[in-house]
Amino acid sequence: MRYLPLTPNDRQDMLATIGASSIDELFVDVPEDARLDGPIRDLPMHAGEMAVEAHMKKLAKNNSAAGDMPFFLGAGAYRHHVPASVDHIIQRGEFLTAYTPYQPEIAQGTLQTLFEFQTQVARLFGVDVANASMYDGSTACWEAIVMARRITKRGKAVLSSGLHPHYVSVAKTMARFTKDQLVSEAPTLEAATDGADLLEQIDDDTSCVVVQYPDILGRIGDMSALAEKAHSHKALLIAVVTEPVALGAIKSPGQMGADIVVGEGQSLGVGLQFGGPYVGLFGCKQKYVRQMPGRLCGETVDSEGKRGFVLTLSTREQHIRREKATSNICTNSGLCALAFTAHMTLLGEKGLRELAMLNHKKAVATADRLASIQGVSLLNESFFNEFTLVLDKDTRPIVRKLADQKILAGVSLGRLYPEEGTLAHGLIVAVTETSSDEDVEALAIALEGELA
Amino acid sequence: MNMLTEGRPTKQDENLAVPDQGALKTHTGNRALMVDEPLIFETGSPDRSGVDLPEAPSVESRLGGLDRDEPISIPGLSEAEMVRHYTRLSRQNYAIDVGLFPLGSCTMKHNPRLNEKMARLKGFSDIHPLQPVDSVQGALGLIDELATWLKTLTGMPAVAMSPKAGAHGELCGILAIRSALEARGDAREVILVPESAHGTNPATAAFAGYKVEDIPANTDGRVDLDALKARLGPDVAGVMITNPNTCGLFEPDMKAISDAVHEAGGLVYCDGANFNAIVGRVRPGDLGIDAMHINLHKTFSTPHGGGGPGSGPVVFSQALAPFAPLPFVEKTADGHFHLVEEETAEDHHESSFGRMVAFHGQMGMFTRALTYMLSHGADGLKQVAEDAVLNANYVLRSLEDVLEAPFAKSGPCMHEALFSDNGFTNGLTTLDLAKGLIDEGYHPMTMYFPLVVHGAMLVEPTETESRAAIDQFIGALRSVAERAKAGDEMLKSAPHFAPRRRLDETQAARKPILVWQEPEEYAEAAE
Predict the structure, then answer these.
(1) Any idea where the domains of chain B sit in the sequence?
(2) Which of B96, B174, B293, B462 has a beta carbon 3.0–4.6 Å from B312's, enabling a disulfide?
(3) Nearest chain A residue (CA) to B286
(4) A37 in contact with B, Cβ within 8 Å
(5) Side-chain half-sphere of A64: how many Cα atoms within 13 Å?
(6) How far apart are CA B243 and CA B262, in angstroms?
(7) Average pLDDT in the B179-196 region?
(8) What confidence tens digit (pLDDT) does each residue in B85-143 have?
(9) Do B357 and A255 touch (CB under 8 A)?
(10) How far apart, in whole angstroms, are the C-alpha atoms of residue A75 and residue A95?
(11) Contact B210/B235 with Cβ under 8 angstroms?
């Protein structure tokens, strides 16, 4: 057994030191009828590297990898190029196999990267502070709603119809148990965001208004008026960013007045991975820092006066406050946060802006090419790297059929909103730096074939 | 240190005078391999970048007038600088790859590298969560296969794969319990949690809207069954029990606890953080539990990554299975894998309590955990539990003469050994001992947890340590423990040899600096 160093002799000697005659004596507290008499049945016995690798490769081959074909899916998870050095850094054993930095004197590597991560996220979002990560965007979004309830002591959250439907589902699941009131509707196929409608919904019972930016249909709208209205009712504006690369091209939510900004950080450094692990981003204004969930890394000095970093404000957290904690979160997404920060460091502001404009302009060119097809129209007037096409038929069967032809065309709105018949003709298409002109042409020709 | 001019030393010459290292100053402040690394904000610049991108197409932008016109102020580094930055930082970290990591309740075992290689196969790493299901049959098959392993190892009929970490799994279990009770019109309000429980347990119950009440431990470090039975009643929704518990002991009354809770109309949640002690030897399903999360990043060796990502699938009893969250994978009769989500759930999963996360859970962790399971097999996993328990008992019996082990007399421990600070003198504490252990080249054990033992030290060696490695660790811990009992003043200022001396956590919390500020802002803040 290649991972187990003890030899049979070691085991005998150690049992003798312990004063036990057999390993079974160490399991004496297990009731007799719960003891198994041998290895669990119906599972295979141990296997060598080659056999395991063969088995896993067989499973892996039975998937259509995005890189092997034209690929245009987004809707909360984006395919970006991850530089080789980023994956190398996160595989260094000192990062990969470290624990949460509870002993700061021997965890400065993790802690300093978290401090840099927090600073990058805060600057990207245009807010004062950010935490050391959450599980993903959807759970970060719910935590933000809970935080707004704590701050405002009100239980009604107004969700934009442009918020990712899975994020809405997560919030609805939780709200059913916590008795929070959620106001939410499915989106309609219009060019403008629902900002104007949301303004009407904010009142003195509202804890927060939650707006995705860019929204699920790829639309981008100025949130300044929403922030103003929310603040006039002592409510908070929560902005949700599922594509952080966008903030290299468009105004930050903080600049428009958002109080809490959360997001999905997967786009930078992490990769698609069929939905996880991803990395939740969580930032807010300085005055709310003590209401934040999750871990925070802070700067301090050691006993010789040297700068160092520690986990701080832990009196908010479950291991100190137990049932009074701001959240139950413990393990977060440390290694994905490292991937995010390493990628961001490699980009810098210059690289981020270039990457963002490359995404955007490719998306503009792609949108125009696809909208030129008979039976296809472009919903958005403005967008970042993702837009919604409206076809003259249900897009679900088309997406499945194109997948069989090895073209991953986008996300059909019918899959995301199965109960909304009016959305069935919508198709969300995302374009990143990884989409080539040939890929776009292949998609266009295939769509023409389906709509002819 | 003296320069050695004649041959190789085999042993430090104790007669040689060693100059005071503190008096030796270097120009840089660095000490050989111990090199300080500035922040990227001090070395990088916003106009430097480590990526080369192609030209963007020449089209007009369509950003609706929302162009980002203010500076972002995120510095960049070239690739050469970036690699060095993080490599230097990495060397200031302790990690399993560096040495034994005896952090009780965290199961810091070796992370096999085959797991990493498999997780990077493009068929797993480069697939989108919303691809049509026919294009991800291998991924769904993998989830189903891992689910089968988890159900078989625990003897439970169902499993929810989507929870993102242990605490998220707890939440999943508690929401299922609440849904099941509500479905029978039974609105109970209280969850009972032993005082020795992980902090996540009461926090989770509260996050799900429950009131939390403690149940006491008995003098053996186990749940006080009589006290528990006395508290059960029509307002108690359930209990959250950790087994093996956080004192490193198996709860011999687990079945009786489950039966009593069920009889009173409640349900049983088991915190599976310590599953490593019993995997392959005991099936929790045989002990009457209704839900248990499994930390794939503990028992099944997926890396901790400096604080995640974790993965916390939850196994369910028949009573809770119908309430499992969306989405999940089902295998149809023809061998096809079907994804049950909002679009497809309406007809036969209407009692699911809904979605907990955006997508399918921690696929990248599933690939690693399944690789680990296939490597060990049923026989190897049984050996894992046995060696983990053997190593912990070996540590317990090798040190109980020097460190008080409050529950050692009641019998063997499971996968971790618990000690107290009883006998330390001169005001020395568990924290001081822990910092002394850092100087010996080890990551300390879990400190001050569980709360039921004074100055608790929870040592979990895991099964992936050799006997020689454990003997060396025992020697180090014995030495530091003896110093603590002798009142060695030097421990109060330990660590002496780490990249940093003891850090001022009080200052960090009183005036939090959570993001980097330009030096002039620091100066202003100081005024």
Answers:
(1) 116-370, 385-508
(2) B293
(3) A34
(4) no
(5) 21
(6) 18
(7) 93
(8) 999 999 999 999 999 999 999 999 999 999 999 999 999 999 999 999 999 999 999 99
(9) no
(10) 30
(11) no
CA B375 – CA B381 distance, rounded (Å): 9
| A108 shares contact with chain B (CB less than 8 Å) | yes
A12 — contact with chain B (CB < 8 Å)? no
Per the structure block, which two tokens stand in for A112?
A: 């300093």
Is the CB of residue B178 less than 8 Å away from at least one CB of chain A? yes
How does pLDDT run across B297-309, given as a tens digit for each residue? Answer: 999 999 999 999 9
Q: Residues of B with CB below 8 A from A73's CB?
A: 128, 130-131
Q: How far apart are CA B502 and CA A385, in angstroms?
A: 47
The residue count for chain A? 452
The greatest distance separating any two alpha carbons of chain A, rounded to the nearest whole angstrom, comes to: 82
User: Superfamily for B385-508?
Assistant: Aspartate Aminotransferase, domain 1 (3.90.1150.10)
Q: List C-alpha distances in Å: B80 to A123, B34, B319.
A: 24, 20, 57
**Shortest distance, CA B82 to any CA of chain A (angstroms):** 6
pLDDT in tens, A257-296: 999 999 999 999 999 999 999 999 999 999 999 999 999 9
Contact B51 A83 (CB under 8 A): yes
Of A294, A34, A96, A161, nearest to B98 by C-alpha is A96
Please answer whether residues A279 and A270 qualify as being in contact, where contact means their C-beta atoms are separated by less than 8 angstroms. yes
Q: Is B166 helix (H, G, I), strand (E, B) or coil?
A: helix
Judging contacts by C-beta atoms under 8 Å, the chain B residues touching residue A59 are 123-124, 138-139, 141-142, 145
Token digits of residue A119: 């600073």
**pLDDT tens track for A120-144:** 999 999 999 999 999 999 999 999 9
* DSSP string computed for A292-323: --S-EEEEEEBTTS-EEEEEE-GGGSHHHHGG
Asked if B127's CB is within 8 angstroms of A274's CB, the reply is yes
Q: What is the ipTM of this complex?
A: 0.97
What's residue B22's pLDDT?
Answer: 59
What 3-state DSSP class applies to B515?
Answer: coil
Partner residue opposite B73 with nearest CB, options A59, A255, A349: A349
Residues of chain A whose pLDDT is less than 70? Answer: none
- Is A115's CB within 8 Å of B500's CB? no
Q: Report the alpha-carbon distance of residue A250 to residue B94 in Å, rounded.
A: 40
CATH fold of A72-80+350-451: Aspartate Aminotransferase, domain 1 (3.90.1150)
pLDDT averaged over every residue in chain A? 96
The span from the CA of A272 to the CA of B90, in Å, is: 25
Here the tokens at position A440 are 């776009």
- Kindly identify which residue of chain A lies nearest to residue B508, measuring between CA atoms: A300
* Domain B116-370, CATH among 3.40.50.2020, 3.40.640.10, 1.10.3720.10, 3.40.50.150: 3.40.640.10
Q: For B338, list phi and psi in degrees, rounded to 5.
A: -120, 140
Question: What is the CA angle B165-B167-B173, rounded to 5?
Answer: 100
- Tokens, residue A235: 């409510």
Which one is the CATH code of A84-344: 3.40.50.720, 3.40.640.10, 2.30.40.10, 3.40.50.1220? 3.40.640.10
* pLDDT surpassing 60 at residue B511: yes
DSSP, res B2: P
Find the angle CA(A45)-CA(A46)-CA(A52) to the nearest 5 degrees: 115
User: β-strands B267-271, B236-242: how paired?
Assistant: parallel
Q: Of B158, B236, B222, whose CA–CA distance to B194 is shortest?
A: B222
Alpha helices in B91-136 (DSSP H): 113-119, 122-125
Cα A364 off chain centre by: 25
Across the A/B interface, how many CB contacts are shorter than 8 Å?
Answer: 732
Residue A450 and residue B336: Cα distance in Å, rounded?
26
Q: DSSP states of A385-409 as a string?
A: SEEEEEESS-HHHHHHHHHHTT-B-
